[in-house]
């Protein structure tokens, strides 16, 4: 009997050890905005923590406060035998490319960056399509025929938002004026709300009554300016309507949380594939937001019109200009 009990105990210990050893280990590398930026990074973090809870994975995250440290952060996760390492943001592209080549047995994913490698999944979004929709809504809401755009850095990704936004506004109102400004030229631009507020106030002062903020944690400055001036702002990446109810017309949402969660789940179930995964209007990868915080700001007529535009984009009847394909 004693021997049998020992065997049973040994089996239990081995089972627990085996279960722990098989737990998927995921490393998340956030960019400078951090998990509390209420935008891009917050959405990624939400997707990862949902996976931690629902899929019982082991999750560790770091915030890359110094851009030069990104490569080492990825390498550190890989050296510790993490199964999947996810980089958030275009600035991590080169780091992922280099480290993925050094650790071919580790799987990597990157949001907003294309890396061609057998162990890397690139999660890409049709920002221009979603931006076209919020641009159309901005033009419908504008009483001055003037709207604005405040981007973080003047880079192709943010230009893609700006081009789609302007095209959407002009689709509704061909004579509308679209003013465009950028917060800065370094990574600090994504976390400088004082500067973004200054830019937004200037745009409002020159007649704009809706400003689309695409500047990470700097968006809060635009929202403050909108509230101060009793004008409208538009959020980005996650649903930011709740931050300043009544001042935020809508948000251009990217389903970064879904992309991160699905990538973790695919890795856990052995369905991870390398290559580009696209998220657009056709699969709810991007969209405009409508909820209790802004339902009084978007009239039934506005909703009907923007839904018609959305269907036409998906059907190919409206060709949204794409900065990435700009000649």
Automatic annotation (TrEMBL):
The keyword Cytoplasm does not apply. Keywords: Cell membrane, Lipoprotein, Membrane, Signal. The keyword Lipoprotein applies. Pfam families: Bmp. It comes from the Bacteria. Residues 27-322 form the ABC transporter substrate-binding protein PnrA-like domain. It is a lipid-anchor. Coiled coil: none annotated. Its main location: membrane. CDD domains: PBP1_PrnA-like. It is found in: Cell membrane. Residues 1-21 form the signal peptide. Belongs to the BMP lipoprotein family. This is BMP family ABC transporter substrate-binding protein.
């Amino acid at each position: 009997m004693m021997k049998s009990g020992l065997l049973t105990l040994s089996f239990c210990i081995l089972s627990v050890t085996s279960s722990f050893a098989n737990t998927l280990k995921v490393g998340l590398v956030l960019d400078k905005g951090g998990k509390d930026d209420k935008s891009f990074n917050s959405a990624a973090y939400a997707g990862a923590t949902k996976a931690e809870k629902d899929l019982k994975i082991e999750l560790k995250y770091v915030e890359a406060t110094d851009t030069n440290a990104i490569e080492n952060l990825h390498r550190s996760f890989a050296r510790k035998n993490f199964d999947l390492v996810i980089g958030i943001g275009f600035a991590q592209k080169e780091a992922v490319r280099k480290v993925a080549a050094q650790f071919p047995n580790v799987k990597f994913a990157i949001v907003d960056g294309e890396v061609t490698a057998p162990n890397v999944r690139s999660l890409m979004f049709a920002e221009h399509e979603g931006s076209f929709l919020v641009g159309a809504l901005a033009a419908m809401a504008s009483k001055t025929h003037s709207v604005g755009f405040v981007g973080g850095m003047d880079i192709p990704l943010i230009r893609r938002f700006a081009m789609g936004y302007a095209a959407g506004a002009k689709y509704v109102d061909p004579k509308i004026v679209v003013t465009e400004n950028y917060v800065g030229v370094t990574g600090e631009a994504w976390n400088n709300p004082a500067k973004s507020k200054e830019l937004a106030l200037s745009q409002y002062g020159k007649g704009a009554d809706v400003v689309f903020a695409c500047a990470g944690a700097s968006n809060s400055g635009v929202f403050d300016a909108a509230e101060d001036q009793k004008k409208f702002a538009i959020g980005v990446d996650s649903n930011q309507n709740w931050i300043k109810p009544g001042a935020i017309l809508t948000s251009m949402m990217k389903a970064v949380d879904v992309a991160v969660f699905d990538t973790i789940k695919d890795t856990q179930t052995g369905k991870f594939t390398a290559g580009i995964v696209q998220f657009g209007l056709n699969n709810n990868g991007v969209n405009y937001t409508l909820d209790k915080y802004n339902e009084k700001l978007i009239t039934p007529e506005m909703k009907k019109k923007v839904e018609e535009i959305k269907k036409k984009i998906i059907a190919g009847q409206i060709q949204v200009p794409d900065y990435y394909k700009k000649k």
